[in-house]
Amino acid sequence: MKNHPVLEYDNIPQVAMDAMNDVHREELGIVNNLHSALVTGSKDEISILCEQWLKHTKAHFDRENMMMEKYQFPAIQCHQTEHFEVLKSLETIIGESQNTHDFKALTEYVSNDWPKWYVNHISTMDIVTSAFIKQSMANE
């Protein structure tokens, strides 16, 4: 399944917290596997991976949102809003592709839109957020 990666783990920025890096690695694995399934046209596998991706993303964002709230991250509103918007887009595009069995839009999102967003989000929001939270935890 690793024949068609959209993004290699070595090409995503690392943040200050290992737990966040682990979550990013897991999510990237799911997306790379989904991309491979989209290339090979395995509809059952696409469906399973889409559900896995949604579940993982919701848990990922919930954990980050909780940590930002707990440590009173100053830019929490901006970061949480982006999480909300991306999750809503992900739910919409997966829902539409599952209902119509037309995977063109999902393939475009997975191949192009999501990797660009992911690297940008980690490079900007997650790097700053993780540094703030790590420092806050050290000060407890």
Write the layout of secondary structure elements.
Elements: H1 18-40, H2 43-70, H3 76-100, H4 104-138
> What percent strand?
under 5%
Name the shape in a single word. elongated
Estimated structural class: mainly alpha
Give Rg in angstroms.
Answer: 16 Å
Question: What is the mean predicted local confidence, pLDDT?
Answer: 95
Largest sheet: none
The tally of beta strands, per DSSP, is 0
Helix content: over 70%
- First and last CA, distance: 43 Å
What does this structure look like?
It is a single chain. By secondary structure, the chain is an all-alpha fold. The protein has one domain. Helices cover 79% and strands 0% of the residues. It has four helices and no strands. The chain starts with 17 loop residues before the first helix and ends with a helix. The model has no long low-confidence stretch (mean pLDDT 95).
Question: How do you describe this structure in short?
Answer:
This protein is mainly α. It has helices at residues 18-40, 43-70, 76-100, 104-138.
Keywords for this entry:
mainly alpha; 0% strand
